Amino acid sequence: MMRKKWGRMRRLAGLTGTLMSVWYASASHGESYFNPAFLAEDVSAVADLSRFEKGQQQAAGDYRVDLWRNNDFIATQDIRFTNVDPTAQQPSDRVKSGGLEPCIDTDWLKRLGLNMRAYPELEQFEQGACIPLASAIPGAEVAFDFSRLRLDISLPQSAMVNRARGDIPADEWDEGIPAILFNYSATGSHGSADDSYYFNLLSGLNLGEWRLRNNGAWRYASGDNYHTNRWQNISTSASRIIVPLKSSLVMGDSNTGNDIFDSLGFRGARLYSVDSMYPDSQQGYAPVIRGIARTYARVVVRQNGFVIYQGPVSPGAFAIDDLNATSSSGDLNVTIEESDGSQQNYTVPYSTVPMLQREGRWKYDLVAGDFRSGNGQQSRPFFTQGTLIAGLPQGYTLYGGSQLAERYSAFALGAGKNLGGWGALSLDVTHADSQLADDSKHTGQSLRFLYAKSLNEYGTTVQLLGYRYSTRGFYTLDEVAYRNMEGYEYTQQEEGTLQKEPVVISYHNLRHSKKGRFQASITQSLGDYGSLFLSGNQQTYWGSDETNAWYQVGYSSGWRDLSYSLSWSQSQSTGLADSNRMMAFNLSVPFHALMGNARSRNTALGRAHATAASSHGSGGQNTWRTGIGGTLLEGRNLSYSVMQGYSNEGGNTGSAGATWQGTYGTLGLGYNYDRDQHQYNWQLAGGLVGHADGITLSQPLGDTNVLVKAPGASGVRVDNQTGVRTDWRGYAVMPYATVYRHNRVALDINSMDEYTEIENNVSTVVPTQGALVRADFQPRIGRRVLMTLKQSDRPVPFGAIVREESGGLLGMVGEDGQTYLSGMPPEGTLFIQWGNKEETQCRTRYVLPQDSVAQVLVMTTTCS
Predict the structure, then answer these.
(1) Where do runs of H (alpha helix) occur along 310-450?
(2) How far is Cα 237 from Cα 251, in angstroms, rounded to an integer?
(3) Where is each PapC-like C-terminal domain found (predicted)?
(4) What is the pLDDT of residue 388?
(5) Do residues 30 and 1 touch, judged by C-beta distance below 8 A?
């Protein structure tokens, strides 16, 4: 026994000596040699370890790595790595890279944004051939951190194609796979006096670039003397993107944009610019930063104390036109850090309103179709609409458009300007000719003014301050579509439906045209004492003293993890009830704040919180409520709340509810009561995806989704997705992907069972609008085997590499020919290699017992 123990210690010392000899030899840049007799008395029992002598600690092959270019994340991708030339790297680099270097070909260089025209000598390399970056591109650097599987490629700025920061080339966008999509939601309530049920179904078909969608709903209600049972088709449309135009085409039922004219429903066609197709640095509005650098310098731009841009510039004049539109306002502080250590500092005042576009950006919107409204009192005239917004130099934006129909025409023209320290504003005028329901003709104009400004030194933000003044004869297309000059819109009913009392939705009176509309949103920060906010709008009419108005003012703050708010609101609608005023107070106290233990946040009690709320209405209605809520289960996918309250009009009130987010959907159950009724309610929502590999159930789908494919890996959690796990076949749907951006899809390896392994658990996808993209994973499902490998009655040499030929399973032989392999298929062929010659490699066929799934199998096999 002591002899065996001593032998193992001697081998461990020999292995340590190997690593030390490699280190010292590398540090001295000299040749190294390690005598394999330290590991075994019989030298032939040790595999060829010469690669360790040259700093090659890892085997060449394909590795899935996170690829970064100039500190910008590009993708998570499988890349082929080859053994590095020992003379081409410093010893420390060889150790960190595992002795490997990536095989980067011309296709990868184009994807990385290299200006291929600047390096005509790259044309001599065939497609797929590895390019030595350091020699082919002066100034290029490659760093591979094997322990983190991170590959950093640094390319000189002068070698790059002039592309906006964050831009993802269109050839990397994924149109997704063909699929049938169903998204459903159902709600129901059963009370002491009535029943109500609602079902909504959004169905779709993805074929290449086309997206077909249909949205329909069924509503049922019954009670004392009334009954409603109706199915309604809400919309049907077909859409696709047009990449060269960075636009989208929609045909069918949709809505117009609201940049210049009010948004309208239509049935027809729309072609419009899509902001999300542009990188973040090209969306919205941001000023062009101009300056002059004396030397090769670095420009740093800060807003509200945060660095929002940093990049190099050459000596001379420069212009930075790809700033991210980070916030609505806040002056930009620019620092030019010269190479000699000196600095230049100046401020560029910056505010924006929705109508501002960055310099050189054009945005258009074209619509043709029938006006479409759910209001039964409106007709469906055919109309066309076109708008154009252009970003001009010096912070100007010019925009305009037209809206034409048989009984209506309107033309708009406006301009916006960044005024620097005075904020930003836009001003436009719309001229309209209208013929109303009584055949009377009217002509009028509407003037709109929008303003935004941030007084950061005072903590004040005017997010939007606007006013629209319309002359007596100005009408919108929505108003011209009314069949009658005035009337109420009631709850929609079918013929023969009984209703105790009609419910008024809205009221219109075309004899009183709109006059003035004011809207505002102002926030005042009080530092550690919370913040105040004011928001509201008011619409006045010609020939009437009535107004539509809504105002809200409030204060919110907190202490430690406690939060509270106090708010007051007032609303008033023409033709309907009197104005309603309401004051409310809310308080939330998390239990972990009372427990005083940071670790309590991860307990069910620590994740709970107590709430209290009260309100007072202008009609004398007073209510108060208290309750508790929180989340349960390991994945925190079960939320609950229990409330108890009192109302001076309804007496005691109470409610209890819980919502569970599962792999195949969400389910909610609830109960509430007051003095007059008891009501039970429920909700169910989920999705179904049909694809080439079968059918997958999911949580409610978003507009753009990701299909996770990990065949055989059941019950595996998807990172950062509450309740999402792979089904029994290894498939799952990750809803709500971000379009035209890198989406990281990762499987939680800690949730895999002991028979499932996966080499690369991270994938990256870039979906287009409405796509179902697939994230492929290759799990290994199988047995665990402690195998003794022999050749001609002798153990396979120490350090030999073992591969399973069908699945690429890798292992290394230890002492006495033993190797541990997991994820083994029931049968297959192993390839064992301990050198480059034919006599230093062998193969063996194996078949595992059927009952070996739940245990580690110990076996011996001989290779030849």
Answers:
(1) none
(2) 6
(3) 786-850
(4) 96
(5) no
Identify each DSSP E strand in 638-778 by its residue range: 638-647, 651-662, 665-673, 678-691, 694-698, 705-709, 731-734, 743-746, 756-758, 762-765, 772-776
Whole-model pTM over 0.85: no
What are residue 211's phi and psi, to 5 degrees? -125, 115
pLDDT in tens, 215-261: 888 888 887 777 778 888 888 999 999 999 999 999 999 988 888 88
Alpha-carbon gap, residue 522 to 517, rounded angstroms: 17
What are 585's two structure tokens?
A: 């107070």
Count the helices and strands in the chain (H runs, E runs): 7, 53
Other beta carbons less than 10 A from residue 335's beta carbon = 16
- CA gyration radius for the chain? 34
CATH topology of domain 61-84+94-159: Ubiquitin-like (UB roll) (3.10.20)
- Where do you find CATH 2.60.40.2610 in the chain? 690-765
Structure tokens, 202: 């959004």
- Considering all CA atoms of the chain, what is the largest pairwise distance in Å, rounded to the nearest integer? 111
SS3 per residue for 359-390 = CCCEEEEEEEEEECCCCCCECCCEEEEEEEEE
Q: How far apart are CA 278 and CA 248, in angstroms?
A: 13
Q: 782-862 adopts what CATH topology?
A: Immunoglobulin-like (2.60.40)
Q: State the first-to-last Cα distance of the chain, in angstroms, to the nearest integer.
A: 32
Query: Which of 95, 94, 160, 104 is closest to 132 using CA atoms?
Result: 104
Band of residue 13 on the pLDDT scale cut at 50, 70, 90? very low
Q: Do the Cβ atoms of 804 and 823 come closer than 8 Å? A: no
Alpha-helical (H) ranges within 491-625 are 591-595
Distance (Å) of CA 47 to CA 10, 14, 484, 815, 835? 18, 14, 93, 11, 7
